[in-house]
Design goal:
The protein is of the alpha/beta class. It is about 50% helix and about 15% strand. The protein is built from twelve helices and eleven strands. β7 (about 175-180), α7 (about 190-200) and β8 (about 205-210) form a beta-alpha-beta unit. The chain is globular, with a radius of gyration of 21 Å.
Length: about 350
């Protein structure tokens, strides 16, 4: 697999980004990495790493960087040689199979929207993030790509996230829920209620509303919401996990250090709550494979994100999405026709 890595994106670029790419290269002998960014800063980092197979690394110079906080669309117009845009163009042009960036999320989404076609039938992109639950993981979509979602968008998020859950996460029949303020169908905004109606007739394993307190209970494999709500949920979850781990270390840290048995119990828990183990989140709906990483990603997170990009690219997710969108669209057209036919009689 060939993957483009935005070497200039994130709080710890380019050093940690390049190191993460090098770790991934060591793990996967069939991986080829295109490092995109300031060649003068990237090259010494690669050269310092002894024993790296340089035939599997290419550096593509990009003279500009989209900074956090910039208006994504304006930044792309002012900075046509940004590392994010050059990575996206590499996917579009077929130079690589996938790309990833820990840079500005809005910049990645905007660049993908501007330079890569959406999959056939898909109306909006959605970012899907796997969250740990007591039963495994659930995929929350959307967490920031589209903050002004419509019911049709949430329906398609369910289709796209289900395809990803099946192909990459190995869940045969994903249970789908809509994030709301209560389990009852009567609760929620117009967006939630109209989405319920669409999902109920979509032929998927729709379980109804999911409350915020149920997200981490594993009641659903896929949960859909608009990007504003999803991003708030994600940031709150990250904050709670960090606070919990901090308190845990403070309270039982000395005991863990002196007890191998306790360390064995605590270790897996901290790993499940560590975002770096997840690596990155797929941007679903793009005619290609784009992975978005946490802005604070260090080398381990980047290496794991490359693994996510590899799984995403080779899974056939996009074919499943196109098929699913077309199938559900046909079902709704038939339902509308039958409804009109009954009315005419």
């Amino acid at each position: 697999m060939r993957v483009a890595v935005d070497a200039m994106g994130g709080d710890h670029a380019p050093h940690e980004i390049v190191q993460g790419a090098l770790i991934a290269l060591e793990k996967d002998p069939e991986l080829y990495v295109l490092l995109v960014g300031d060649e003068k800063r990237i090259t010494p980092l690669v050269e310092e790493a002894g024993g790296v197979d340089r035939t599997r690394i290419e550096i593509r110079h990009a003279s500009e960087v989209i900074e956090m906080g910039e208006s994504p669309v304006e930044a792309l117009r002012r900075k046509p040689d940004s590392s994010i845009q050059r990575c996206v163009e590499a996917v579009r042009d077929g130079d690589v199979d996938a790309m990833l960036s820990a840079g500005d999320t809005g910049g990645v989404v905007a660049a993908a929207t501007m330079f890569i076609p959406r999959l056939k039938g898909v109306k909006r992109h959605g970012i899907g993030i796997p969250l740990p639950t007591v039963r495994g993981r659930t995929l929350l979509c959307d967490v920031g790509a589209n903050i002004r979602a419509k019911p049709i968008h949430l329906l398609q998020y369910a289709i796209m996230a289900s395809a990803y859950a099946q192909a990459v996460m190995g869940i045969e029949e994903p249970r789908i829920g809509v994030l709301s303020i209560g389990e009852e169908a009567a609760k929620g905004t117009d967006l939630v209620k109209k989405t319920q109606d669409l999902l109920a007739g979509a032929g998927m394993e729709f379980i109804g509303n999911v409350e915020g307190s149920q997200i981490f209970q594993g009641v659903a494999d896929v949960i859909v919401c608009d990007g504003f709500v999803g991003n708030v949920v994600l940031k709150v979850a990250e904050g709670v996990a960090e606070a919990f781990l901090h308190s845990l270390v403070k309270q039982i840290g000395p005991a863990v250090n002196s007890s191998p048995e306790l360390a064995k119990l605590v270790g897996p828990l901290t790993e499940r709550l560590d975002y770096s183990k997840t690596g990155g989140a797929p941007l679903l709906g793009v005619n290609g494979s784009v992975v978005i990483c946490h802005g604070r990603s260090k080398s381990t997170a980047i290496a794991n994100a490359i693994g996510v990009a590899n799984s995403f690219s080779g899974s056939g997710v996009n074919d499943r999405i196109v098929e699913g969108v077309a199938k559900v669209g046909m079902m709704h057209r038939v339902a509308d026709f039958l409804h009109l036919d009954r009315d005419s009689n």
